[in-house]
Write a structure and sequence with these properties.
The protein is of the alpha+beta class. The protein is built from four helices and ten strands, in the order αββββββββββααα. Strands 1-2-9-4-7 form a five-stranded antiparallel β-sheet, with no helix packed on it. A five-stranded antiparallel β-sheet has the order 6-5-8-3-10. The N and C termini lie far apart (59 Å). The mean pLDDT is 92. The structure holds 2-acetamido-2-deoxy-beta-D-glucopyranose (NAG) (3 copies).
Length: 196
């Protein structure tokens, strides 16, 4: 009996591992749609384009491309000028599968036992950031930019930036002092840095 329950629980876990399933093939309000409904053209801006001067994430989630609603997939195109970082963050609803198309990247994540896994990626490498874990990406090259494409197993993986969510949301400072075992002055210094 106990084994049966464990087995059923395992099946249940698999069933809720991604976005909810939809019953129609795709979500559309009417039947007058054509292939354009399944096409997103805004990334054409990348063809022959210049790198930005600061780190930039171009998202293709259900917010930018509503057709993805119900399809359990999305992309983010990540542009890293020399020396830039994608700060510590998590994606609450999906794993991230990152493909490094050009340049080099230092990447890493921390698991729930606080083990740090970090890697130095070269062009052509693919790295997976497991769902919901704190991670970062850093272009530690002083001259060359880097370009990466990340796929997500959700149409809306979500992004929670750690610095912003902790230090830029008016959490009572007493909570921050104790949580970080830091003085109020130290906490204020971090908060001020993020307000600029
Ligand atoms: C049909 O649905 C598509 C996609 O949801 C929308 O772009 C289009 O305007 C709709 N057409 C009509 C006639 O409502
Ligand atoms: C960045 O590169 C410098 C020079 O190669 C190296 O000393 C440093 O450890 C690197 N930092 C990271 C985080 O990879
Ligand atoms: C911090 O919050 C302020 C006010 O909401 C905002 O203007 C600023 O961009 C935020 N900083 C970061 C790093 O998100």
């Amino acid at each position: 009996m106990i084994l049966n329950l464990a087995f059923m629980f395992a099946i249940f876990r698999i069933a809720i591992a991604g976005d909810p399933n939809i019953l129609p093939d795709f979500m559309a309000r009417n039947n007058t749609i054509d292939a354009n409904y399944f096409t997103f053209t805004e990334m054409r801006q990348l063809v022959g384009g210049e790198y930005p001067t600061t780190f930039k994430a171009l998202k293709v989630t259900m917010n930018e491309f509503p057709t993805l609603n119900g399809q359990s997939v999305s992309y983010v195109i990540l542009e890293f000028p020399a020396g830039s970082i994608n700060p510590l963050h998590i994606h609450p609803r999906a794993s991230e599968l990152m493909f490094l198309v050009s340049g080099s990247l230092q990447v890493g994540f921390v698991d729930t036992s606080n083990n740090l896994y970090q890697q130095s990626l070269q062009i052509g490498d693919i790295f997976v950031f497991p769902k919901g874990l704190v991670h970062f990406q850093y272009n530690n090259d002083t001259k060359e930019p880097a370009l990466a494409i990340s796929a997500f197993g959700s149409a809306n993986a979500g992004t929670q930036l750690i610095p912003t969510s902790v230090f830029n949301t008016s959490i009572f400072e007493g909570i921050l002092d104790v949580s970080f075992r830091a003085t109020r002055a130290t906490i204020r210094k971090i908060e001020e840095g993020l307000k600029q």
